[in-house]
Amino acid sequence: MDKIIEIQRKAGVARVSFLSGEMLKIPSPLFLERRLRQGEVMDPAAYRLFMQQRGYPHALEAAMKYLALRERSMAEVRARLKRSCYDEMTIEKVLDVLSAHELISDSRFAESWALSRSKKYGKSRIAQELRIKGVSNDQAQAALSHLSEEDEIARAAEQARKLSRRMADPQKIIQALIRRGYSWSIAKKALQKMNGK
């Protein structure tokens, strides 16, 4: 048994400090289900067991709300649940259920992300963003394969037109396109297309 000396609630997590120096990080929905009070004497191990037993429905609901905003990668959902202090076993169970019901798919996420980002950025930038979001290289490449070179050149030419309003030097425009993830050859073709060649 241990005495609660402090409870802090911030960003969807309750941090409960005990006299022994131990700390529990509790997702807010679980804390609201079984509230603790400063000065209360309790067994932290028993509360951890409660969190493991009751965490799944709350974690699933949190994941569903997160997915309702837009398509997400599995790594994004995992990171979100981890930030909310759900335990690893609960997180894996939620991801398995979401995946089994096809509510989450890294392939589908990669295709959606690539399509939306291709309006402004080139393939290398999009591939880098997908890696950061936890999508495998194979899934990223499969999603990028749906983007045709002609479309990429057309979008890069549109970006080049916008850039030409601010900069006159063609080399600077090419460099700016490369920074946006277009390859050198795509940037060069886009500049030629912009100039009507």
Offer a concise description of the structure.
The chain has 197 residues and is α+β, with helices and mostly antiparallel strands. It has three domains: 2-100, Arc Repressor Mutant, subunit A (Orthogonal Bundle); 106-144; 149-194. It has helices at 28-33, 44-69, 74-83, 88-100, 106-117, 123-132, 137-144, 149-164, 170-179, 184-194, and strands spanning 2-10, 13-18, 23-27, 41-42.
Report on this model:
By secondary structure, this protein is α+β, with helices and mostly antiparallel strands. The chain folds into 3 domains: 99 residues, Orthogonal Bundle (Arc Repressor Mutant, subunit A); 39 residues; 46 residues. Helices cover 62% and strands 11% of the residues. A 4-stranded antiparallel beta sheet has the order 3-2-1-4. Strand 1 and strand 2 form a beta hairpin. Helix 6 runs antiparallel to helix 7 and helix 8 crosses helix 10. The longest helix has 26 residues. The chain is elongated, with a radius of gyration of 24 Å. It starts with a strand and ends with a helix. The model has no long low-confidence stretch (mean pLDDT 92).
Q: State the strand order across the main sheet.
A: 3-2-1-4
* CATH level 1 class label of the largest domain: Mainly Alpha
| Unreliable sequence segments | none
Structural class: alpha+beta
Q: Report the C-alpha radius of gyration, rounded.
A: 24 Å
End-to-end distance, in Å? 79 Å
Strand segment count: 4
- Determine the number of helices (DSSP H or I, runs of at least 4 residues): 10
CATH architecture of the largest domain: Orthogonal Bundle
What is the strand content?
5-15%
Shape designation: elongated
Helical coverage, percent range = 55-70%
Total of domains? 3
Write down the overall mean pLDDT.
92
* Quaternary organisation of the protein chains: single chain
| Helix-strand topology string | EEEHEHHHHHHHHH
Largest sheet: 4 strands, antiparallel
Task: Briefly note the CATH topology name of the largest domain.
Answer: Arc Repressor Mutant, subunit A
